[in-house]
Amino acid sequence: MIRWKNKRDIPDIVRLVRSQLVPISPWFHPRDKRLYDIVSRRIQSGSTLVASQSRSGSPFAFVHFNIRQDRLFIDLLAVDAAFQGRRWGTELMMQAEAHGLGEGCTVAHLFVDEKNERALRFYRRLGYKVARHVKELHCFELFKPLGGD
Q1: How far from chain centre, in Å, is Cα 87?
Q2: What global pTM score does this model have?
Q3: pLDDT of residue 30
Q4: Which of the residues 31, 78, 80, 92 has the least number of beta carbons within 10 Å of its own beta carbon?
Q5: Which residues pair with 112 in a beta bridge?
Q6: Which helix (H) or strand (E) holds 36?
Q7: What per-residue confidence (pLDDT) applies to 69?
Q8: Are 16 and 36 in contact (CB under 8 A)?
Q9: What proportions of the chain, in percent to the nearest 5, are helix, strand and coil?
């Protein structure tokens, strides 16, 4: 099931970031002690949807996003390795995009580390296109119009 995050979910969200995102990121090390505080602060603003096996179960996937004027900014998406390939990432993205559309967003955008080929393929399958390469951040900015075809 997909639901809105609650405070009890934060340790599991940090665990997902540590296990799924940090190993492919050039910015953090999995044992970085600051990671818990950084992720906790980051998800304080915006909205987070989590996937769990029950209403009170631990999240095995999440998407965190912010709405800025008419833009939906996808900040973080992670799915536990044991649950990958089961459309959880796609479903979380669809629900985040639907929420953004309902709030008046006309475009979604996100950043992907330049070496994360798997994520680039995933987002392209969802209709995202590369807007630009941000050399100094070692990432690509992707975008997708919302509410269109």
Answers
A1: 14
A2: 0.89
A3: 53
A4: 31
A5: 140
A6: helix 35-42
A7: 92
A8: no
A9: 40, 30, 30
Dump strand ranges (E) for 1-149: 2-4, 47-52, 59-68, 71-79, 107-113, 129-134, 139-145
Per run of 10 residues, the mean pLDDT along the chain (length 149 residues) is 95 87 60 68 90 94 96 96 96 98 97 91 97 92 87
Nearest 5 degrees, angle CA 89-CA 95-CA 100? 125
Measured CA to CA, the distance from residue 33 to residue 147 in angstroms comes to: 41
Report pLDDT for 138.
86
The one-letter amino acid code at 33 reads: K
The amino acid occupying position 75 is D
Q: Is 125 exposed, middle or buried (0-12, 13-18, 19+ CB in 10 A)?
A: exposed
Output the pLDDT for position 36.
63
Q: Which one-letter amino acid corresponds to residue 126?
A: L
